[in-house]
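Box 3.1 A note on notation
Throughout this textbook, protein chains are presented in two layers. The first layer is the amino acid sequence; the second is a token string describing backbone geometry. Keep the layers aligned when reading.
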Amino acid sequence: MREAKSEIKTVAIVGAGPVGLAAAAHVLERGLLPIVLEAGASVGHAVRQWGHVQLFSPWQYNIDRAAARLLATSGWNSPEPDQYPTGAELLERYLEPLATKTVLAASVRTSSRVTDISRVGFD
């Protein structure tokens, strides 16, 4: 009988914005290792371009549940669910803490432009 490999799989995620960081939180919950590649110099680079704009939906629709569970382990306090944040507030109160104060900090790579994507064994 062959012994099963206990190798942890790595999942590449392109972009360290709200969706990319939420995806990384879900990857962690599934026992996999995320690597988040952000072309910009910091997380949420695209969001910074419109930081002065108020979002069209309140916090309750902008905070991913897996990300919130991860943030809770760092002592994070969730914003009021019915308040409408600006892009800058989304960065300051959610994305930056998620990327720097949780275990995701070791997985985020800024200034990392993705130029090609392939799958092991196929390309």
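Strands lie at 10-14, 33-37, 108-109. The helical segments are 18-29, 45-48, 65-72, 87-100.
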